[in-house]
Amino acid sequence: MGRLLKVRRSVLIKYLERGFGIQYTHPDFRFRGFLFSALVLISLTLVFFTYYNIFIDFFVPMLVANLIALIFCLMGGYYLLVRKQPKIAAVILQLLVSIDSFFLILISGNEEFALVFAFLTPVMGIFLLGYLWGAILSIINFAAIFYFCFTQMETWGPVFFDTASLIHFSVIYLVILIVSFFYDSSRRKAYQMMEEANFKLSELATTDALTTLRNRRYLEDCLMSSKKNHYIAMIDVDNFKQVNDLLGHDQGDKVLIELARVLKETVAQNDIVGRWGGEEFVIIFAEHNATQLQATLEKLNQAVASHDFGIKRDVTVSIGSTNHNAASHRDSIRTVDQALYTAKANGKNRYCIMTEAT
Ligand SMILES: Nc1nc2c(ncn2[C@@H]2O[C@H](COP(=O)(O)OP(=O)(O)OP(=O)(O)O)[C@@H](O)[C@H]2O)c(=O)[nH]1
C-alpha cells in the first residue's frame, strides 16, 4: 500500500514538474504547487455552486459571480501551466479571492460566512504577492468592506449589525493582517539570509584562499560535468623552490598571487583560471581551436617571463596542454601532466601540447 502511494506520488510529481516547467527540487516548486492546488480546489467548488445555482436553487447573481470566478481560475491555470508565469497566476488567484469574497458580501449581506471570506485576503494576499503588495491589497480590501459595512449599519441584514460588530470585524481583520505581514516578512528574510549563507559557503568551498582564483574542487567539477571537450593547460612555476629558499615563503606567496593576476589578464574573460595546488595552475579554455591554443600558450609564456614580479629575478612557467574529455577525465589529467613534464624536461619556460593517445 505504502509502495503504491509512493509510486502514485512520484507519477504526480513528474506530471507537475512537466506542467510547472521546473524540477521538484527547485525552490519555486512549492509555491507553484500551492497555486495549482488552490486553483483546482476553488474551481471544483465553483463548478459545484454553478450546478447548485442552476439546478437546485436558481439564483442569477451568484451564478454570474461563479462563472466569472471560473474564468479567472482558467486564466490562472493558463498562466501557471502554459505560459509558466506563476507571478501572473498568483495575481489572478488573489484578485479572484478578493473580488469574489467582496461580491459574496454584496450579495449575501452580513451573513457571517460571507464576512468570514474577507479574512482570506490578508492571509492569501501576503503569501501570494509578498508582504508589501499583499498588505497594500489587504488594506484596500479592508477599506472597501469597512465602508460598505459602515454605511449599512443598523439597517443591514439578515443579521443585526452594529458598531460592536464592525469593531469585532475590524480587529480580527487587522490582527490577521499584522500577523501575516510579520510572518511572511520574517520568512522571506530568513530565506534570503539562508540563500546568502549558502552562496558564501559555496564560494568559500570553491575559492583558493591565497590567490582568490577557483580551486581544484571547482575546476574538477567543471571539467567532469562539461558536455563538450575543452582545451586545458596545466602551468607550473619553474624553479619555484629557489624563490622560497632564497627570498622566503612570504615572497613566494606574493609571486603566486601576482602570477594568478598575470594569467587571468592574459587569457580571455570566459576562460577559467584556477589554482590546482602548490605552484600549479590550470586554465580551462572556453573556445579554442588548435591554432588559437598555440598562440595563447605562447602569449602566456611571454607574459609571465616579461612581467616584473618585484623580486629582482625572472619568473618563468612551463605549460602542458591537452584536449580534455569529460568521459575520460583521469586520463586527460594524466596526459596534461605528462605534457607539463615534457615541457620541463625540454628546458622549461615553454609549452607542450599532447593528445590523449600519445
Ligand atoms: N610560498 C609558497 N610556496 C609553495 C606553496 N605551495 C607549494 N610551494 C612550494 O613550491 C615549491 C615546489 O618545488 P618543486 O616541486 O621542487 O619544484 P620547482 O622548484 O618549482 O622545480 P621545477 O618544478 O622542476 O621547475 C616547494 O618549495 C613548495 O614548498 C605556497 O602556497 N606558497
From TrEMBL:
The question of whether Transmembrane is a record keyword is answered with: yes
**Which InterPro entries does this UniProt record tie to the protein?**
Diguanylate_Cyclase, GGDEF_dom, Nucleotide_cyclase, Rev_trsase/Diguanyl_cyclase
GO molecular function list: diguanylate cyclase activity
Q: Which GO terms describe its biological process?
A: cell adhesion involved in single-species biofilm formation; negative regulation of bacterial-type flagellum-dependent cell motility
An example of a Pfam family matching this protein is GGDEF
Q: Which cofactor does it need?
A: Mg(2+)
Q: Which SMART domains match?
A: GGDEF
Keyword line: Membrane, Transmembrane, Transmembrane helix
The record's EC number reads 2.7.7.65
GO cellular-component term (any):
plasma membrane
Q: Which residues form the GGDEF domain?
A: 228-356
Q: Where are the transmembrane segments?
A: 33-52, 58-81, 88-107, 113-132, 139-159, 165-183
Reactions catalysed according to its record: 2 GTP = 3',3'-c-di-GMP + 2 diphosphate
Q: PANTHER family attached here? A: DIGUANYLATE CYCLASE DGCM-RELATED, REGULATORY COMPONENTS OF SENSORY TRANSDUCTION SYSTEM
Protein name according to UniProt? diguanylate cyclase
Origin organism is: Marinomonas hwangdonensis
